[in-house]
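BUG-310 | component: ligand-complex export | severity: low

The export step for heme C jobs runs without errors, but we want the raw record kept on the ticket for reference. Input record follows.
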Amino acid sequence: MFAIHSKVRFSVSLLALVFVCLMFLPEADAQTGNFARIGERACLSCHNRPAVTPLFETDHASRADSRSPYNDHDCESCHGASPEHRRTTSMPTAVVFEGSVVFPVSTAEQQNAVCLSCHESGQRTHWMNSEHQFAELSCISCHDIHQSNDPVLSRATQPAVCIGCHLEKQSQFRQRSHHPVLEGLLACSDCHNPHGSVTQNLLAGNTVAEACFGCHAEKRGPFLWEHEPVTDNCTTCHNPHGSVVDRLLSTRMPFLCQDCHQDAFHPSSLYSGDGLPPLGAAQQLLGQACLNCHSQIHGSNHPSGSRFTR
Ligand code: HEC
Ligand code: HEC
Ligand code: HEC
Ligand code: HEC
Ligand code: HEC
Ligand code: HEC
Ligand code: HEC
Ligand code: HEC
Ligand code: HEC
Ligand code: HEC
């Protein structure tokens, strides 16, 4: 009885010993190419830390997804085969950064090549030659791979990431009239594609107006009577981020209109601000100014709406 027991125990410990040996065999024997055969375990013996492990809750650690790094060489799918580094026992600066342990030390171009090897299509189609690529940003200037909730992906936390570099946008979004971005109701990426676009200013959509129609569809028309600047570019009259004038207007009424309409018909006079009607200031200046009558300023479908009055 005792004998059998100890035999079993012996073979169990032998198995365990073989297993442990396999784990710590010299790298030359335990590799696929230069990659560690034991995947993440080759790294976690030293890196099982809170700065690293939230990655396990993300899509990148999904073995079920055949496209995921974890279907390949785990950590090394991103960090590159790192045989010298795996064997290191001290600060590994000298050995590591020759093509392995790519993040966060190599150049932006080298880092981005890794991410783009899986993510070149879709939103990233125009990454090359985009303003951000040109400014040598790397994907991880915005993305945080080792966090379970990458802040740049959610409306509430994205503005802080962008504003970290585009500080002047913070004050624009704090002006009296503004899109509710700092309030978390819409994100920079509702209007911009930070990965690159075919339009100016990294705008999402083929034209400026297309960046707006997703939410302001009623401004798309088609209108029987179109107002040229509206079909041309919304930002002729609106500051998209924020403005000190109501309705995000770039200039106060009626000056906004008089920028373009000076010599036609009644608006030809430059209205003064003195006095009150009927003796003083014209009604073109009060309240909605020109909009008192030209209320359909984005276009009209009324048969006699050619002057946008109905
Ligand atoms: C024998 C221990 C050990 C093993 C195994 C190990 N590392 Fe490291 N690694 C270190 C040490 C020590 C540092 C430097 C101090 C630190 O950042 O924790 C480091 C740093 C890093 C860094 C940060 C470099 C920097 O400049 O900030 C990365 C990335 C990294 N390791 C990835 C890996 C990957 C991927 C694996 C598995 C292939 C791995 N390590 C395996 C010990 C190890
Ligand atoms: C999807 C690609 C990807 C995978 C998979 C990945 N990493 Fe990373 N890792 C990165 C990037 C990118 C950084 C740079 C820091 C950042 O912004 O997230 C990084 C940073 C690190 C750092 C330095 C973190 C610090 O702040 O000290 C360590 C250590 C590290 N990774 C280890 C690992 C280990 C261990 C694994 C596997 C369990 C792993 N990584 C899997 C992309 C990856
Ligand atoms: C081996 C392929 C591979 C590599 C390398 C890779 N990813 Fe991914 N990534 C995936 C897969 C697969 C998904 C999940 C499916 C999807 O969303 O398309 C994903 C998802 C993402 C997501 C969306 C996460 C979410 O919660 O919606 C982001 C952002 C991302 N990756 C950024 C990066 C960045 C930045 C790098 C470089 C540091 C990188 N990836 C490297 C395959 C990869
Ligand atoms: C300037 C900041 C910024 C940079 C740089 C950046 N991203 Fe993104 N990324 C974002 C934002 C913001 C989103 C969310 C987009 C949305 O909500 O439509 C996102 C979303 C993603 C997604 C998930 C959505 C999707 O299309 O599946 C992936 C994957 C991704 N980025 C990969 C990358 C890669 C790869 C790079 C580097 C070539 C990169 N990103 C560089 C800001 C950035
Ligand atoms: C409602 C849509 C919208 C939102 C939301 C938005 N933008 Fe813009 N952004 C635009 C448009 C449209 C332009 C082009 C401006 C022009 O042509 O005058 C622009 C231009 C820019 C420019 C270049 C020109 C300039 O004004 O400096 C930067 C940088 C920019 N946006 C950053 C941001 C950041 C950062 C956020 C989020 C904090 C953001 N934008 C949110 C629509 C938007
Ligand atoms: C690491 C710093 C950094 C971060 C983070 C960043 N940007 Fe940029 N961005 C730049 C630089 C640098 C440029 C190019 C120089 C410039 O035009 O300001 C640029 C350019 C732009 C432009 C084009 C400006 C133009 O004149 O055409 C837009 C739009 C923009 N960024 C939006 C965003 C948005 C949206 C985010 C967040 C998702 C973001 N950026 C995050 C640094 C950053
Ligand atoms: C993702 C959705 C979204 C996009 C895209 C968008 N907007 Fe808006 N817009 C809003 C929301 C939400 C409000 C706030 C409505 C409110 O406060 O009641 C708003 C309000 C406005 C206002 C009125 C502000 C006021 O004080 O009443 C104007 C003007 C405006 N947007 C113009 C634009 C222009 C121009 C674009 C394109 C550059 C654009 N929007 C793109 C969602 C969007
Ligand atoms: C010729 C100048 C001009 C142009 C160009 C223009 N707008 Fe306006 N917009 C105005 C004025 C003036 C108001 C204020 C109307 C009011 O207070 O009744 C306004 C108000 C708005 C409002 C808020 C009130 C409402 O009617 O819903 C939105 C949203 C809006 N514009 C979106 C757009 C979009 C989207 C575009 C581009 C397709 C655009 N605007 C182009 C002048 C313009
Ligand atoms: C960027 C220049 C620009 C701005 C700003 C502008 N308009 Fe116009 N507007 C035009 C052009 C161009 C036409 C077409 C002129 C034509 O057909 O002779 C037009 C046509 C009109 C018409 C019809 C006139 C006609 O002859 O058919 C009216 C009414 C009008 N605008 C009112 C306004 C009002 C009110 C504002 C201020 C909210 C305004 N516009 C702002 C450029 C502008
Ligand atoms: C009291 C109402 C009223 C106000 C306020 C008003 N308009 Fe008019 N506007 C009209 C009428 C009525 C017409 C002529 C319509 C017609 O003939 O069909 C007209 C015509 C126009 C035309 C077309 C002129 C032409 O030569 O065909 C323009 C441009 C115009 N207005 C611009 C403005 C501007 C700019 C303002 C503000 C400074 C303004 N209007 C304020 C009522 C008004």
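Assignee comment: Attached the raw record above. The radius of gyration is 31 Å.
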